[in-house]
């Protein structure tokens, strides 16, 4: 009797969990993918509900004109238990795949560029990694240098590229603007996710595709996000903008972002000329607060001059607390300037970080060398690592989330080698942009920490 009592207690405890899991599954399966030309009235009639009920279940898009590919939750939907036919087309009305076991992937890159070859190899390694979980992946590749001429790669197929696009689940593309516009239209029509791995101002501005993913945000966007985070994390610091006399575009973007953020948040800031005398430096810095120094020129020349001036100032005024805010490109100077970065409590803004010392990245480099009989180039960023991280994010994400990827990608667990992804829907609902940015902090205790 006592034993039976224990069993009943266990069942009572676990029943809510089973019911919760069942409710979640029902919600995910009871969805509708909008196809071209569908209206609220047509969808409601087709599923036996009223327009008011349908819009109440989808308050984020209620009252708006429906766009192709939008996922709608169906109220009081009874889910059919009959399995879908194996040959069902991915665009078939009303069928939402909550996972995909047979992914079709397209890649178009300028393969005359060694960096693009490294990126592609990293993506192939990501595909091999995902295949180990039982997912079938077919990859079709084209060389954008020859504008849609197929190259010899895994999954070679004789069909024309644009025809093949209709069958793909995701397409990684870096191509000339004219070709990209055509590809974007085809992907939009067929519901293929279009991923731009690298920032290209023209390409990104011209596209109108709800399933477009910009994996690399513009420097202006990253610096704006970073500046807002900086004010949120450290509002009590004194920010000092240093004018070099030779500002470049990156430097101006960063300093303008910082000045705008300090003005909006009413945070203390001052300006300083790079070649000013010691008295001017002393006047710009606050003896009783932490000082964050921002340079309007990302060049090595200005960086070297400022580091020397700050080194002299620290010797003469050891009581002043100085921090240095650095550009993404300065990661390439880490080996040469590591002691200076530590001494100045440096924060480098970056969407990526590649730690050459840990075993994980060493394993990636060994595997790459074994597979391709060459070493990963020592660039910033490492393009092979970027290809792996981006490929793994989408291939693993689509295989596990299926057509609910757009709704649930925030649940993906990321353990990247270098690049993290935080895709946010752009203004107007056209596509997503990766707005992830972090601070690589070189502490005065000679440690490196990532602030996210």
Helix content: 40-55%
* Class derived from helix and strand content: alpha/beta
Q: Work out the radius of gyration.
A: 26 Å
CATH topology of the largest domain: Rossmann fold
The strand order across the widest sheet is 5-4-3-6-7-8-15-14
Question: Which regions contain 5 or more consecutive residues with pLDDT less than 50?
Answer: 1-29, 77-89, 147-158
**Biggest sheet, open or closed, and with what strands and sense?**
8 strands, mixed
Structural domains: how many: 3
At the fourth CATH level, what is the homologous superfamily of the largest domain?
A: Response regulator
Distance between the termini: 55 Å
Shape: globular
Short description:
The protein has 452 residues and is of the alpha/beta class.
Secondary structure elements and pairings:
Blueprint: H1 2-29, E1 31-33, H2 40-46, H3 51-56, E2 71-73, E3 102-109, H4 114-131, E4 136-143, E5 149-150, H5 161-165, E6 170-173, H6 177-190, E7 193-196, H7 201-206, E8 212-214, H8 219-233, E9 238-243, H9 249-264, E10 269-273, H10 278-284, E11 291-295, H11 300-316, E12 322-326, H12 334-343, E13 346-350, H13 359-372, H14 383-401, H15 405-408, E14 423-425, E15 432-434, E16 438-442, E17 448-451
Parallel strand pairs: 3-4, 3-6, 6-7, 7-8, 8-15, 9-10, 9-11, 11-12, 12-13
Antiparallel strand pairs: 1-2, 4-5, 13-16, 14-15, 16-17
Helix pairs in contact: 4-14, 8-9
């Amino acid at each position: 009797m006592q034993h039976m009592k224990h069993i009943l207690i266990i069942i009572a405890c676990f029943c809510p969990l089973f019911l919760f899991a069942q409710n979640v599954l029902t919600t995910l399966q009871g969805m509708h993918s909008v196809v071209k030309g569908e209206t609220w009235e047509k969808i409601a009639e087709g599923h036996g509900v009223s327009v008011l009920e349908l819009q109440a279940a989808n308050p984020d898009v209620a009252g708006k004109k429906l766009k192709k590919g939008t996922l709608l939750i169906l109220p009081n939907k009874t889910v059919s238990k009959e399995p879908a036919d194996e040959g069902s087309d991915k665009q078939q009305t009303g069928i939402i795949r909550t996972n995909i076991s047979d992914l079709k992937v397209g890649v178009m890159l300028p393969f005359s560029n060694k960096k693009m070859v490294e990126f592609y190899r990293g993506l192939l390694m990501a595909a091999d990694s995902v295949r180990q979980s039982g997912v079938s992946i077919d990859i079709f590749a084209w060389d954008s240098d020859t504008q849609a001429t197929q190259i010899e790669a895994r999954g070679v197929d004789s069909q024309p590229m644009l025809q093949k696009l209709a069958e793909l689940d995701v397409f990684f593309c870096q191509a000339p603007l004219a070709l990209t516009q055509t590809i974007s239209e085809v992907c939009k029509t067929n519901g293929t996710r279009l991923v731009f791995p690298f920032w290209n101002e023209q390409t990104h501005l011209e596209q109108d595709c709800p399933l477009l993913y910009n994996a690399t945000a513009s420097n202006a966007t990253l610096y704006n996000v970073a500046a807002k985070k900086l004010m949120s994390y450290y509002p009590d610091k004194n920010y000092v903008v240093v004018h070099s006399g030779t500002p470049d575009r990156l430097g101006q973007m960063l300093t303008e972002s910082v000045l705008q953020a300090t003005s909006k948040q009413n945070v203390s800031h001052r300006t300083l000329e790079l070649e000013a005398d010691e008295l001017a430096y002393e006047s710009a810095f606050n003896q009783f607060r932490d000082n964050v120094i921002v340079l309007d020129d990302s060049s090595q020349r200005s960086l070297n001059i400022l580091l020397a001036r700050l080194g002299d100032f620290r010797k003469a005024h050891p009581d002043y607390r100085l921090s240095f805010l650095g550009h993404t490109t300065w990661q390439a100077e880490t080996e040469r300037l590591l002691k200076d970065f530590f001494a100045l409590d440096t924060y480098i803004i970056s969407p990526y970080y590649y730690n050459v010392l840990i075993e994980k990245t060493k394993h990636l480099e060994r595997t790459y060398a074994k597979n391709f009989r060459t070493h990963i180039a020592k660039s910033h960023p490492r393009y092979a690592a970027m290809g792996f991280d981006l490929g793994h994010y989408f291939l693993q994400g689509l295989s596990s989330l299926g057509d609910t990827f757009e709704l649930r990608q925030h649940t993906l667990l990321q353990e990247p080698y270098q690049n993290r992804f935080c895709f946010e829907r752009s203004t107007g609902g056209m596509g997503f942009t990766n707005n992830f940015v972090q601070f690589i902090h070189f502490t005065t205790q000679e440690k490196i920490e990532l602030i996210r």
